[in-house]
Model the fold of this input.
Amino acid sequence: MTDLASPTVRVSTRPAETRRDIGIKRRYAAERRFRVYGISAITLGLLFLALLLSTVVSNGYTAFLQTTITLPIEFSEKVIDPKNERSTDAKQLMTANYPLLVRDALVKQLGLDATKRPQVKQATDMVSASARTQLRDMVVADPSIIGKTVPVTLLAEANIDSAFKGQIDLSVAETNRKVKDQQVAWMNQLADAGVLKKSFNTGIFSFGASSRPEAAGVGVALIGSLYMMLIVLVLSLPIGVAASIYLEEFAPKNRLTDLIEVNINNLAAVPSIVYGLLGLAVFINFAGMPRSAALVGGFVLTLMTLPTIIIATRAALKAVPPSIRSAALGLGASKMQTIFHHVLPLAMPGILTGTIIGLAHALGETAPLLLIGMVAFVVDFPGSPLEPSTALPVQIYMWANEAERAFVERTSGAIIILLIFLVFMNLGAILLRRRFERRW
Amino acid sequence: MLSEAGRFFSMVSPVEFFFGTVWDPRFAAAGSGDASGQFGLLPLLGGTLYIAFVAMLFAVPIGLFAAIYMAEYASPRLRSTAKPLLEVLAGIPTIVYGFFALVTVGPFLRDISTQLNGLLTGNYQNFIQAQSVLTAGIVMGIMLIPFVSSLSDDIITQVPRALRDGSLGLGATRSETVKKVILPAALPGIVGALLLTASRAVGETMIVVLAAGVAARMQLTPFEPMTTVTVKIVHQLTGDLEFTSPQTLVAFALGITLFVITLCLNIYALYIVRKYREQYE
Done:
């Protein structure tokens, strides 16, 4: 008895305020800890977002600048067409030795001795090999240029481009880097003369695939993505809206429609790669459609987007209050008139928001496109959705697998382009929702 | 898809596929019928579940705490800025996460392990590979944070006000209310949300293709590369192979397996969420 009583005695000797504090401090400390966990979780999440975006932007913003070399190229007849056969043999202009023109101009600009071959080779390596096709296209487009001297803006080779942007560590031993000291000296000499300079890179938007980073761009991929988005929009919006109207307004409530509803919800959560397999089996193997075509990609993405659009449309239709329907029906409108004249226009902002979000999702989707052969090296612009093309995210995937520094830059640049598209689409969806949102 | 998978199972027995422990689909020379290699699903499934587990381990605490803070503590202003910002993470295409893993997270983990190893043992050798379960898991975890947080947020805010007021009125602190009253009440819904998130982690492709590696093996260390079902589907089908060989047809069998797994997770999650919802309506 005395044992039990002694703690009570001790407690009662304390002042009343301390007694009340027992446990409270500990509980408040736990409370504060809990808050800190919460805040740090949110901070961590936002930190990751910032890290992700800053990685992409810091790697990628330089992709929108391209080092160019503007040289006065002499389109000398001696080099292009020494035997004057171009009127009879059209091939002559295609196969002429255009790199020689670049070499001559560069030798003249730098004041080199044309007989020292290794030195001249080093100098010509500074200009992208794509100069050949560039000059050829100029001459083929306008043969009268032969014999004239025209200033031409050529792309600098990728390593020179990186060096000029300060991305190559020049303190590394010369043998261990791709840009030689002599080339750096020439680079500075040309830059001082105003011949070599950075300018806005239009090529990244217009070029197709290339194994040379400086001549690679997302042009073909943009067109491919555009085709696919159009196909997705044209197919999934009418089908999705029609299906939702039927399910929401006409379908009887029975086990079958319940089953369909559950299925649609499940379809929205199926991994996207399974849609790719489905597309491969049904559209390519069974229906015999061409591989790598934007058409098949569009179909697959439509399948993927449909559940999203149906769910959004049904929610929008459900949000239209029954009083609107009753009023329309009461005034003598038929069921069709009620839906198409009253319910659908009121639900339209919600439907469009859902569609834009679905499209944005489809635009960033990669996995299913890999399976239907969109991982392709496509140089030429696809004229129709049936021709081989690639898509923006697939182009990013292909570039991400390349090792060169310049491709890391291009990859990030392509990601920036993709993200800008997504930001605009999502902003559009948000604005639409803000503008037309109604509270009944 | 079923018929393609059926053609695969006519060549390779289902028992070998589902219970085989070696993944080694050799590209058989034309005409040699039986030298087609082994198609054991288990190493792939093990890798898939392991990476998904690491991702959940990373995403669940962060997502859940963020959701609790936003639902219970945050001022409306913080909530209206932090919530959309976190949801931006969900809108970023997965290929971007893959690239992030490839150029930032992977090399970062590799370098930090080199330094750590050097400090501890003096031997500057990295013990974390740039492509590893850990890399893929962490990056996938970042991707999953918004799913966990927004789904849990919805469920926590659905818990009736009366429960909260009752607990606070009895003198409990906010964190005690959350731990003893709100979380138990929201638990079924949260479990459902986590299952939905897990099904997303299992079906994720682009992050693992770029960050997890291609070596199909079973192991316990998260520092080495491992591969997943989705990676192998991509690898078996991106190449110039005939559609009649088991090497390509196996992709359809893998796809069906993946589909069934995610479908089960989803149905179970929806079932739990539905059951829970009846309590308050």
